[in-house]
Amino acid sequence: MPRWTPTTDWNGQDAFIIGGGPSLRNFDWSLLHSELTIGCNTAFTLGPQVCKICIFGDPVWFRVYEKQLTEYAEAKGIVFTNATSYRNTKVPWLWTMPRRAVGLHRDALGWNGNTGAAAINLALLLGAKRIYLLGYDMQRQDKRTNWHDKQIRPAAATPEIYRGFIRSYRFVVKDWHAKFADCEIINVTTNSGLSADMFPWMNPDGFWAERIQAKAEE
How confident is the model over 39-55, as pLDDT tens digits? Predict the structure, then answer.
């Protein structure tokens, strides 16, 4: 698949990013059926009805899930990566973009050490006006690292790793205000390690109650 040239297919719309945090363990995924979504890594196993786009940055993870991702792509799921090892891939359904180490960019996807940050960059390039972050815990909860049980390296999720993730989001926030200031990024995550001075925070229960009501009134 050739490299993707950004097109604002989601111009002015809301987008939801599905992170990997354990706070989503009992989430009602049907709430996302009618939404524009980007799922980080293993969120693709929820299927294209929930996870419209999957993004990953770890080649090891890709090798583990390549067969399942092929089936996901055949079911009309879309897969993106900024992994440099796949820059010239011959995988026909894999969309690629250049990787930059930190920050947000208009001609590449900033890595910032984690897929969640790259997903934010992708949503902005797609033209989303408001981006809602789900499962951006950045910490363990009850010894769990993810909402699913499909981790390939669970022991790697150490407190220091999470602290590194959080530090890297300072670059994301800086470039958000400098390059995409007309867009909103809202953290709808319980007990997130990302402070409210980085991304405005909304209580998930209140947020979804209001959104369900608003859609019922449309």
Answer: 999 999 999 999 999 99
